[in-house]
Amino acid sequence: MLGERVGPVIFLSDQVALFPGLVPFQLARISLYVEFESRSFSNGTKMRGLLTAAGLAALAVPAQALIGYGITMYDPSCGFGCYDSVSGFMLECSVMDHGPVGAHSHGAGGPTSPECRAGDDYFLTTLAYCMNTTCDASTPRWKLEKFWSEQATGSKTVAAKWSYTEALAQIKEPPTDQYGEDDHHLTRTVLLDPETVKANTLTREYFEQAETTHSQYGLILLIVGFGTPVVISMFTRLPYMSTLSDKLKPYLVYPSLIGTYHVRPLPYLLGNAATVGQSLYVIMFAALNIAMAAAGYKSVQPNAWFANEWQEVMGYFSARTGVLAFALTPLVILLSGRNNILLWATNWSHSTFMVLHRWVARIYAAQVIIHSVAELVLYIDMESYEAEFKTEYWAWGIVATVFACAMLVFSSLFFRRWSYELFLVGHIIMAVFVIVGSWYHVEFLFQRRWGYEFWLYAACAVWFFDRMIRVFRVLKNGPRRAVVTEVSEDIMRVDVKGIRWTAAPGLHTYAYFPALSPWRPWENHPFSILPTALLQSKRDASLSGAASGSDTRSTADVEKSGGVTSTSTPQRDDQALGGAPGTGITLYVRKSKGLTKLLTNHNSLLTLLDGPYPDNPTDGVLKSDRLLLIAGGVGITGVLPYIAKHTNVKICWSVKASAEGLVRDLEGPLSRVAEKDVRVGSRLDVAALLAEEERTGWSRVGVVVCGPGGLCDDTRALVTAKARTGPTVWELEVDAFSW
Question: Annotated region Disordered: where (predicted)?
Fold first, then answer.
């Protein structure tokens, strides 16, 4: 952004910001003028201020927020127009060999110093006369006095020897001529060229209007990005909306935009395809960003700061894209958080918000890149690039831009799969450089005068809130000692006693095992939660017998795959682990590269838990007449808690032959399910399963699937097709954690 560089001002009038970045509240028609003029007491320093009791109370609240929303830039514009028109005149005390004025100063520097203007009679009277004849009669006198005290000399720290009223009193006769080419310096009170004053005034007015529009559009982006999930969720909960929602889900919520790809990555690791509904959000938000960046520009020519209309509009455009990028920063961070308040306020899943996080982050990076390129092109055209390139604000802007581009590249699926932990650490470090670079970019340029830093305050607040809640969750759960047991060659069972969480389905926790990797104690992974009581409850003999008699498909499948040996679930010493019998949670961990491959049998492994967190909304599937649970491998942990929450359940589970130990370990809870299809070494025929449920004639069937990407995507596609054609209403939840 282009603008003059002046020091901070403390001024409270009719409005005082109640909260940074939000709409200010009204003080009961109290006009409060606070002025500080600073000079060294030993060298003539004095402080002059007018404070009322209301002012002292109000000073505890930030008085500035955003331009147009608590901050005014050039008010009154007529005063700035007069000052710009006279500030270039040579005075008797001007220094003739002063260097050129920088591109951003717009009269703040030059051969005439503020001290020189402060004591020059004719400069002050010329400025006062111009303000008196140019400013509208509706402009309050106090506002003119305020401008005079802050701007008459070009520096807030250097006061004019006269007040505005005193300077007017010095004019005995109205001036009759203008400053001419033959005048070597100002030797009398002169008239200022009306066209010059008008051009300078309109330049400031249009610039402030543009900046106000930037703030307005930034707020629109933030509100729409945050509010859309809330509004849609509220809409689906309105009376009589359930039927419409049922009809829309097979077309918007369930299907993937690209074939059957969603959990599975696209070919060549190009990423994960969004669903149709997620894509509509992304398209809408991208279109809104384009509209906000492209619309609402007004030009005024001649312009005191820009040589032509192209430069002026390009200046506005470069500033606009920078503000929009700042406005997106808190939203990008919010969407990625574990403690994203949208998870609590909506019925959208964590995986959906992760998809939106990636796409909004790409839009953010595009705004950053466009802002930087536009600034570069503008300054080259204005022939000021070499001077700007040497400034600190420019250097920090480059830092922020480079790291934003690096995040865009290194956040690709290829790097996330290559080493997720390395990606995560690098992602956080690069994000810090983006925030710090952005901070110093505006700090060196504007010294916290125009409120751009409040976007960064909001971003940091979102990040620290998420991290603070994580710490509180870990502290609340406390350090625990877990029993780790190998149940198959690549699956470990982790029992954590003494944890009393709700036995609700669709929950996960992040587990830390700091003793496994002392050099990476922060490393943690998400796991589906199984209440240990669900695994250790005594079998109901009659229910078990009924299950055995009715599960003909399960028996046939087991025999076909080589059989499953039934053994009792291993017993743990609950009291020794600090928990009452049956309390605690159980995690099943599939060993992979990274921290989980270090898990071995252990009787007392230090474990920290951050959770529980919701995966997916469960209301829809739990209200169905029939609940079909489909799992693959260790994905059984994501669906098993549903058996305690629904009375009409069927489990279909396929596992590799190498995971047969997991089947034996879960024999207890599975034996209580009347209908099940457990396959070891063979795959499920999902299409046949769904067709069977449809033939049975259930009015509403809920389907929960958890497992490998192929299983989840195939189930999604098959349920979508049936929901569009048949009379049965299908509810689908895909429990696949997204990174």
Answer: 544-579
Q: 10 Å Cβ neighbour count for 186?
A: 21
Rounded CA-CA distance 701/722 in Å is 11
Using an 8 Å Cβ cutoff, are 607 and 515 in contact?
no
3-state secondary structure 505-555: CCEEEEEECCCCCCCCCCCEEEEECEEHHHHHCCCCHHHHHHHHHHCHHHH
d(Cα 73, Cα 213) in Å, to the nearest integer? 13
Query: Which has the closest alpha carbon to 500: 528, 535, 533?
Result: 533
Q: Rounded distance, CA 717 to CA 536, Å?
A: 36
CA angle 189/138/61 to nearest 5° reads 105
Stated as kind and residue range, the H or E segment containing 416 is helix 413-418
Amino acid occupying residue 101: V
Residue 97, by phi and psi: left (phi above 0), alpha (psi -120 to 50) or beta? alpha
Contact call for residues 574 and 583 (beta carbons, < 8 A): yes
| SS3 category, 495 | strand
Q: What φ, ψ does residue 731 adopt, rounded to 5°?
A: -110, 130
Which tops the pLDDT comparison, 137 or 550?
Answer: 137
* Residues 77 and 208 sit within 8 Å (Cβ to Cβ): yes
Query: How many alpha carbons lie under 13 Å from residue 165 in its C-beta half-sphere?
Result: 5
- Kindly state the DSSP code that residue 275 receives in the 8-state scheme: B
Alpha helices by DSSP H, listed for 26-120, are 53-58, 77-86, 114-119
Establish whether the linkage from the previous residue to 612 is cis, with ω within 30° of 0: yes
Structure tokens at 319: 């500033």
Task: Please say whether the beta carbons of 355 and 312 come within 8 A.
Answer: no
d(CA 397, CA 65): 22
The continuous run of DSSP H or E covering 681 comes out as none
CB-facing half-sphere around the CA of 439: CA atoms within 13 A: 12
Burial 275-307, CB ≥16 within 10 A → b, else e: bbbbbebbeebeebbeebbeeebeebeebbbbe
H-type alpha helices, 517-665:
532-536, 541-550, 552-560, 619-622, 636-639, 660-665
Q: Is 414 exposed, middle or buried (0-12, 13-18, 19+ CB in 10 A)?
A: middle
Q: What is the mean pLDDT of residues 608-629?
A: 94
Quick check: 627 and 603 in contact, CB under 8 A? no
**C-alpha torsion sign, points 575, 579, 581, 587:** negative
Determine what percent of the chain falls in helix, strand and coil, rounding each to the nearest 5: 50, 15, 40
Q: Where are the beta strands (DSSP E) in 633-674?
A: 649-655
Say whether pLDDT at 531 is over 80.
yes
Percent of the chain beyond pLDDT 70? 83
**Using 50, 70 and 90 to split pLDDT, how confident is the model at 472?**
very high
Q: Is the pLDDT of residue 437 over 60?
A: yes
Cα 513–chain centre separation = 29
Q: What is the dihedral of CA 530, 254, 688, 664, to 10 degrees?
A: -10
Structure tokens at 222: 């933030």
Report the amino acid identity of residue 619. Answer: D
Q: Report the first-to-last Cα separation within the chain, whole angstroms.
A: 36
Q: How far apart are CA 252 and CA 724, in angstroms?
A: 11
Locate 433 and state its tokens.
């450089």
Quote the tokens at residue 472.
Answer: 């509180």
Q: Measure CA 579 to chain center.
A: 40
**3-class DSSP assignment, residue 649:** strand
DSSP state of 488: E
Over its C-alpha atoms, the chain yields an Rg (Å, rounded) of: 34
| Average pLDDT score, the chain | 85
Residue 274 C-alpha from the chain's centroid:
19
> pTM of this prediction?
0.84
Cis status, amide bond into 581, omega within 30 of 0: no
Q: What is the DSSP letter of 267?
A: G
